[in-house]
Amino acid sequence: MKEIKGICRLLVFLIMAVTLSGCLSVGPDYEQPEIETPDAWGQAIMSDFQAGTNSSMQNWWTVFNDEVLNEMITMSSTNNPDLMIAAERIVEAAALRGIAKSLWFPQITGNGSATRIQVSENIFAQLPDGQNKATQYSIGGSMIWELDLWGRVRRSVESSDASMQATVEDYRDTMVMLYAEIAYQYMQVRALQARVILARESIDLQKDTLKLTGDRNTAGLAPDLDVYQAKMNLAQTQATIPPLMIGLARAVHRLGVLSGQEPSALSGMLRGDAVDIPDVPSEIMIGLPADLLRQRPDVRAAERRLASQHALIGAEKAKLYPTFILPGSLNLQAYDASELGGDSLGYTFGPAFRWNLFNGGRIRNKIKAEESRTKQASINYERVVLNALEDVENAMVAIQEERKHIVSLDEAVVASRKSVELVKDLYKAGLTDFQNVLSTERSYMFQQDRLAEAEGAVAGYAVQLYKALGGGWAPEESSE
């Protein structure tokens, strides 16, 4: 009867402990901090942009209407090593969360042994011969269960949950950066290809000029100096192509690696004698500054890491209070394996606690350390938001100013082309010297090259803007 009463008391204690463990959690509860953002972007840079929700943000690269670019991004989404690593980190974080959650449950282990025992004959000399040896058999198990009365385990799980969510955001951030890097390198490839084509056209033009001066020199109408200057001009233009080809090869190789293939794998796909730099939409739709808190994965990851760190304060504070556990063991023990039955049963069970009454301030200093780390995480969250706002405004200004640059360069190219035609006619008529022909041709080539470079730059800045906005995934579809 007494044993039954004792078991009942233990059951009552267990029920009360489990109930309380679901109610108490020491430490501050987390609330997402309010971050002040501007109500709108600066009006001075909004002329080329429209405020509102961009429905194409998830697949922003499609606005360039380039099938090759679309195909490369599709390949990278399944083959890129960085993306694969980021996905595995989610698996790792989920496993760590499972480890934290396991502490909610009893930890049960099984054991068994067959031990040969011999006692010392010098100490137990009075034992009859043969009675100082035996084999002990044992089989059973043990259990220990920490009752989470103060929420230490719950706060640890809360921290693990937020950490796993942060790794999900890291995965999305890897997607954002990967797609932007592919698009940027692709714009560089097309811009470099266009510059090579223009350089070769200039070489053809200057070869015609060299032939013209040679013919005039043979006829006694032009000095040898004109011929050598024409050769010098041609050689200088030819010298511009190798550096462009080096940059082109690097961009192509980078795209191959980003797509998860060997460097030259995409050379055939990217080859072309008549290539165009993708057009940037005349107006790009952007959201409000506050939308970055929802769209940018790096901002979301910083907020989740703040939440994770915040929960660790409570987990550490719980160590100031006594830890209640329910230990127990159940074993069958006998000196003969055939006797491992009911009479060989032994068990222990009952509540226990431990309490860190004095540790030289170790726990309180750990709490202070976690509080400081939480403040650091909060400051970092604010810093990430500010950097995000800066990225967007920088990209917007760059697009706007580069478009103005293109307008001026386009006018310069038109004027330079006409100047080349006129100065050659004057040179043939003997009304101007060859120095004017040289300088005009150089200017024409220079302006053409700058225009192609600027067109590639504005496309690159558009990519940077979509990256700054956090494009490449859809929060509405992916939010937890």
Mean pLDDT: 87
What summary fits the major beta sheet?
A: 5 strands, antiparallel
Cα distance, first to last residue? Answer: 53 Å
**Strand composition percent:** 5-15%
Relative helix content: 55-70%
| Unreliable spans | none
Task: Walk me through what this model shows.
- Helix content is 61%, strand content 11%.
- The strands form 2 sheets. Strands 2, 3, 5, 6 and 7 form a 5-stranded antiparallel sheet that branches.
- With 480 residues, the chain is an alpha+beta fold.
- The chain is elongated.
Quick structural summary:
This protein has 480 residues and is an alpha+beta fold. It has a single domain (25-105, 149-324, 361-478), classed as Outer membrane efflux proteins (OEP), CATH 1.20.1600.
What is the fold's blueprint, element by element?
Blueprint: H1 2-21, E1 49-51, H2 67-79, H3 81-102, E2 107-118, E3 133-147, H4 152-218, H5 224-239, H6 241-258, H7 267-270, E4 284-286, H8 292-295, H9 297-317, E5 323-334, E6 345-349, E7 352-354, H10 362-428, H11 434-468, H12 475-478
Parallel strand pairs: 1-4
Antiparallel strand pairs: 2-3, 3-5, 5-6, 5-7
Helix pairs in contact: 2-4, 3-4, 4-5, 4-6, 4-9, 4-11, 5-11, 9-10, 10-11
List descriptors.
five-stranded antiparallel beta sheet; alpha+beta; Outer membrane efflux proteins (OEP); elongated; two-stranded parallel sheet
